[in-house]
Amino acid sequence: MGVDRIAVVGAGAWGVALANVGARAGRAITLVARDQKAAAAIAQTRESPRLPGVAIEGRVRIAAAVEPRSEAVLLAVPAQALRAVAKTLTVAAGTPVIAAAKGIEQQTLAFMTEIIADTVPHAVPAILSGPSFALDVARGLPTAVTLAAQDPAQAQTLAQAIGVPTFRVYHSTDVRGVEIGGAAKNVLAIAAGIVAGKKLGASAAAALTTRGFAELARFGAAFGARPATLMGLAGLGDLILTCSSAQSRNYSLGVALGQGAAPQAAGSGKLAEGVFTASALVALAQREGVEMPISTAVAAVLAGKLTVDTAIEALLMRPFRAEE
Predict the structure, then answer these.
(1) What distance in Å separates the CA atoms of residue 315 and residue 307, rounded to the nearest whole number?
(2) Biggest CA pair distance of the chain
(3) Which residues of 88-106 are buried (b: 16+ CB within 10 A; e: fewer)?
(4) Which of 32, 111, 229, 316 gets the most CB atoms within 10 Å of its CB?
């Protein structure tokens, strides 16, 4: 059975991008804003203030609530807001609810699909992740991502529902692996930004990304993630993108930290998911006995427990060891 009526919750940059993709795929898309006032403003301008200059496709309907008839729901909201938004959903039993956020809930250490299962127990949790900037996707530039759900047929159906030639959606059943790739890479992107901000050079950047991926892989293995998933779009692919581009908010925040900005001011008012995920990622790693020195250093810098220079020195002074 196909999926035609899709609600995209969250009228920010990512929500608009996904709504536009769904419309290009020929689906009946409802873009859900946070309230009636916001919905009315966006409906009038056909543009989100979070993604200025990008028109919302004409066939996208703007609303302030999810239609009960929706056959799938995409939650394009920040990871730390996902629980509150999911609690408001009224959907039919068996409706796929797809998290399009990359993170780990800071207070509970829960992954995104765990939050959906907890708050909408009659829904089918799924996750969408991969190397993708909202502006590229919204404009129709070539992008490839991964959508994971436990049931392979459902994962394939959902991927086909929102996939278009310029937005290639690969399907998977490795839900946890896809979630881990998206969450961990944000923290590692902050570290990569620090390297750039401190002008430590291209060699250091390559080393940081490579050793960061080793951390991601160890963490994923502890949670049963498949190596192929971590080596794929949602893991290595997303890590490469966010560790090398100023379009990444996490990378840009790291650059500011490397240039001497205080953690509280480094983000310039823009949401960087890695700031919240760092402490949760490290807590889960410690619980599972996974060594993640780079992520631990980032979390310590963000918490004000270490300066950037002290964190770098501590990493450089680690004992030499065999490469894993």
Answers:
(1) 12
(2) 60
(3) ebebeeebbbbbbbbbbbb
(4) 32
**21 dihedral zone (left: phi>0; alpha: psi -120 to 50; beta):** alpha
The verdict on whether 185 is a catalytic residue reads yes
Model-level pTM greater than 0.90? yes
Give 8's Cβ-side CA count (13 Å radius).
29
Residues 22 and 39: their CA atoms lie apart, in Å, by: 18
Counting every residue written for the chain, the total comes to 324
Q: Which two tokens stand for residue 189?
A: 């992107």
- Spatial separation of the C-alpha atoms in residues 163 and 71, rounded to whole Å: 16
- Catalytically annotated residue among 37, 87, 102, 185: 185
Task: Give the separation between CA 136 and CA 246, rounded to whole angstroms.
Answer: 14
Distance from chain centroid for Cα 314:
29
CA–CA distances in Å: residue 61 to residues 5, 26, 33, 71: 11, 13, 11, 15
The Cα–Cα gap between 14 and 278 comes to 22
- pLDDT of the chain, 324 residues: tens digit per residue: 579 999 999 999 999 999 999 999 999 999 999 889 999 999 999 999 999 999 999 999 999 999 889 999 999 999 999 999 999 999 999 999 999 999 999 999 999 999 999 999 999 999 999 999 999 999 999 999 999 999 999 999 999 999 999 999 999 999 999 999 999 999 999 999 999 999 999 999 999 999 999 999 999 999 999 999 999 999 999 999 999 999 999 999 999 999 999 988 887 778 899 999 999 999 999 999 999 999 999 999 999 999 999 999 999 888 888 787
What is the residue-wise DSSP string for 256-320?
A: HHHTT--TTTTTTT---HHHHHHHHHHHHHHHHT---HHHHHHHHHHTTSS-HHHHHHHHHTSPP
Nearest 5°: the CA angle 247, 7, 96 is 100
